[in-house]
Amino acid sequence: MSNIFDLFKQISSGSGASQGAVEYLLVGLGNPGREYEKTRHNAGFMALDYIAGRCGARLDRAKFSALVGEADINGKRVLLMKPQTYMNSSGEAVSAAAKFYKIAPENIIVISDDVSLDVGRVRVRRKGSHGGQKGLKSIQECLGTEDYQRIKIGVGAKPHPDYDMAAWVLSTFDVKDIQNISENYPRIYDGLCKMLEGNTEEAMQICNKASKS
After folding, report:
1. Would you state the torsion angle of the CA atoms of residues 102, 146, 159, 36, taken in this order, to the nearest 10 degrees?
2. What is the pLDDT of residues 106-121, one digit of tens each?
3. Catalytic one of 27, 29, 39, 41
4. Is 41 part of the annotated catalytic residue set?
C-alpha cells in the first residue's frame, strides 16, 4: 500500500511525469528513414535515443515536423525532439517548438555530429558558429542567433581531402565506431544534467575530456 500512497503524494505535489511546462528543448539531429539509422550524420538521433531510454521518454508524437516526447530530467521539464525535416532544414522544427513553448535560445540544447572531432570525442559548447554542420546552420538561420547550447559528437574526419563530404557523413559507422560512441553516452547524459542546472562549465569538464577508445 505504501507504493500507492507514494504515487498519490507524487501526483499531488506536482512532480509526476505529466506535470509542469516545458522549460528546455533537447534536439538530436539526423535524417529520418531506416537507410540513415547508423550513419555519421545521425549521431544526434542515436544519442537522443539513449537519453530517451534513460529517462523513460517515448519519441512517438508527431509535432513541429518532428518526433517528440516529454521527460523530467534532473528536475527540468524537457521536450526531446528528432526533426523529421532532413538535416538541412532542422531549424524549421526547432524554431517552431521554441516559439510554441516560448523557449529562449539559451534553453535549447542541440546534439549533433562533428567531423572535426575523432570518433567518440564529445564537446559541449555554450554557443558558437555552426562550423559547416548544415543542421546547426539551419537552426541558427531560423532562430536568428547562435546563442544556443550544443553537444557535439565526433564522427571522424573524411579519409582524404578529395572525399566527398556528403558521402562521408552519410556513410555507415562500423561496429568499433558505434562502440566508441556508445561508451560515452552515460557521460553525455551526466553533462546534460549539468547543462540543465545552468552549469555548462561543469558539463564541459565532464564531456570535453578525452573520450574512451
Report:
1. 20
2. 999 999 999 999 999 9
3. 41
4. yes
